[in-house]
Amino acid sequence: MKKTLEFKAHDGEIEDIALGPDNKVVTAGRDFQCCVWQQDQLVTGLRWHENLPGIPDKAYRYQACRDSGTFLGLGTVTGSVAIHIAFSLQRLYYVKEAHGIVVTDVAFVPESQPGRELLGGHEAALLSVAVDSRCKLHLLPTRRSLPVWLLLLLCAGLIVATILLLQLAFPGFL
């Protein structure tokens, strides 16, 4: 193997590292941060005081990370588990103290046939393993969105309403 890049990612030790899509790298460090990198450039990062106001930084530390391409799964030293959107790091799922103690690893259920059967109607499934000798499955409910047909119907209604208003405001418009 040949080293291609070296840079300082964290103050102190790196707890976990995961490779994501588009050559992105996710790191969880002992400095209480989780970072997404593109080469040696910081794309975005998470800190407890920004995402969970009122909870001091020192109370939690990211311990494990995995990036499925769409989602970022995180485990902490306090046993908490979270799922974030990978590109924006918006939190979608959080369970405080899902385990009694340190989450040592997290992994997304693969999108194979058995994995899809396990998912059921959920958007993602994350497995977490902890020092408490337990493995837990976390299911992310499918986010609601408007069906395409309803969106098209609303657009058509808006166009018709605009034409009618223009006809009322300017007689002889059409």
UniProtKB/TrEMBL annotation:
Keyword Endoplasmic reticulum applies: yes
Record localization: Endoplasmic reticulum membrane
Annotated Gene Ontology cellular component terms: endoplasmic reticulum membrane
Keyword set, alphabetical order: Endoplasmic reticulum, ER-Golgi transport, Membrane, Protein transport, Repeat, Transmembrane, Transmembrane helix, Transport, WD repeat
Spans traversing the lipid bilayer: 146-170
Record-linked InterPro entries: Sec12-like (IPR045260), WD40/YVTN_repeat-like_dom_sf (IPR015943), WD40_repeat_dom_sf (IPR036322), WD40_rpt (IPR001680)
Gene Ontology biological-process entries: endoplasmic reticulum to Golgi vesicle-mediated transport; protein transport; regulation of COPII vesicle coating
Sample GO molecular function, one term: guanyl-nucleotide exchange factor activity
Bilayer topology: Single-pass membrane protein
Pfam family, one: WD40
Protein's UniProt name: PREB protein
